[in-house]
Amino acid sequence: MVNWSDSQEEKIIEILENGGACRKCCQRFLGKKQSYLYKTVHQLEMDKMSENKQSKPNPCVVCLGILQDVYMMPRVNEIITSIKTSGYDADKFTLSISLPISLSIREHSLWLHLEKAGKDIIDGNLSKEDVTPLKQVWKYVYPELVTSQVGLTHESGDTADFYVELVVLWEKDTEEMKAMERLCPKEYAERAKKTNVYNMGVYSRQGVDNSLENIKYDNFAPEYPVPPAVPDKPFDLDFRMSRNSIWIGGRYNKYTRHLPQTPWLIKGVRKCGSSVEELIGDRLKEYLQCEQVKFLSSGREDVDVRMLGSGRPFAFECVNSKKTKLPQSNLDELTKFINDNHESVQVNGLSPVSKSSIKKLKQGEEEKRKKYTALCRTKDPYCLETLKKLEEMTDLVLKQETPIRVLHRRSNAFRDKVVHSMNITQVSPTLFKLEAIAAAGTYIKELVHGDFERTQPNLCTLLGLETDILALDVEEVFLEWPLEEKNGNK
Ligand SMILES: [Zn+2]
């Protein structure tokens, strides 16, 4: 930091003020870094405003009013009101601000103005790198004003899961950036042609700052006014509040044979009224007041298959949720809220889960065993003794070719699947129940009827009898879920 004499400081401020800079920007250009200093200027401006004597100053040429309380404070108050009434149950927040890129040109212009008009004072004392960044000064003053009003703790450094993003808009940004094409025609005229190649558009802040660094007064001044032109109106502001996703895990039962797991669309036309995903997700979304929910599950059952036992493990990613504090009493309330929706779809064990535990859910889809019950019918009466022989077969390896019924959505493949055990219960001379424990992903319907010999062996070949399946239930998905969160529920 530079130690200016009073007269030097006065002279520099005079040059900057004549150039159109606001008070805080003058301090920035002096290289001042102490936050209390900016807070003092803020207080001074607030006092002036309350006296109401001062006519509105011009928007500052380098900050467009962002650091001028007369322009920024009304916006800060709007933000405070919005956060207070938003309904987010957060304790902490992060406030961030993004600035229009053309401010880099304006800052460079004012710097060149100062360099020229104050040459004898600043030479050897101050360089452009000493100028305190606008964003830093903004952070000295404004986040704590918001914090004191909204009753949340502010965390700088983007660590809070609830964040308020301010985007400063400047209607002349694009127009002013054209100066870069004139100043660095080689670089930017080329870039302008392939905007799509650069994610950020033609310009990146870092790139523009680097380019400007080497442009001196004589080259700059013919292409852009020095000092910058006074804006005819101040900045505009857009802001959005959002929150990192949370994940809610649980298990669901499905007690009907007429409900798909996920919305069933054929060529964009809905085939079934609703789905497990929607019956649970819509309620979850409403209860947590989130923007969107995304369904994840450990495998799936067919539309005509029931999901019994302790249920199928699932989770929802809840995007931008206003409610995230879920003590057991709320989870119970949420469970009831979902279960009241539809008697055929019931959830249990709802609990917040970590993002990393979702992997386990998908792993379970591939690796875990499942228990099924199939109601089967033989064309001719069967011999129970023959049937009971199935119970002696353990870890029977099936060669399954992708079933014809799913070929429209899966490519054809041969897979080895293991049926670990089978149990038979007689129902009538031609009806029996097959209880099977099989590896995840085994096609049970095909194990029974053989799918035109695409599954080998199958019950028809094993029994020497034409056998078909009438109904199927998933009795159990053997996966520990939901996993307890290590740090407890938030
Ligand atoms: Zn300013």
Describe the structure.
This protein has helices at 6-18, 23-29, 35-51, 69-84, 103-117, 119-122, 134-150, 173-183, 185-193, 205-213, 217-220, 276-288, 328-339, 358-367, 384-388, 444-449, 459-463, and strands at residues 92-98, 153-154, 162-169, 236-243, 246-254, 265-266, 269-270, 292-297, 305-319, 345-353, 369-378, 396-401, 414-426, 431-439, 455-456, 467-477. It is an alpha+beta fold. The model has no long low-confidence stretch (mean pLDDT 91). The strands form 3 sheets. Strands 5, 8, 9, 10, 11, 12, 13, 14, 15 and 16 form a 10-stranded mixed beta sheet that branches. The protein has a 4-stranded mixed beta sheet with strand order 2-1-3-4. The protein has a two-stranded antiparallel ribbon with strand order 6-7. It has 3 domains: 6-242, no CATH class; 245-365, 2-Layer Sandwich (Alpha-Beta Plaits), CATH 3.30.70; 368-477, Alpha-Beta Plaits (2-Layer Sandwich), CATH 3.30.70. It starts with 5 loop residues before the first helix and ends in a 13-residue tail after the last strand. The chain binds zinc ion. Zinc ion (ZN) is lined by residues 21-22, 24-25, 60, 62-63, 67.
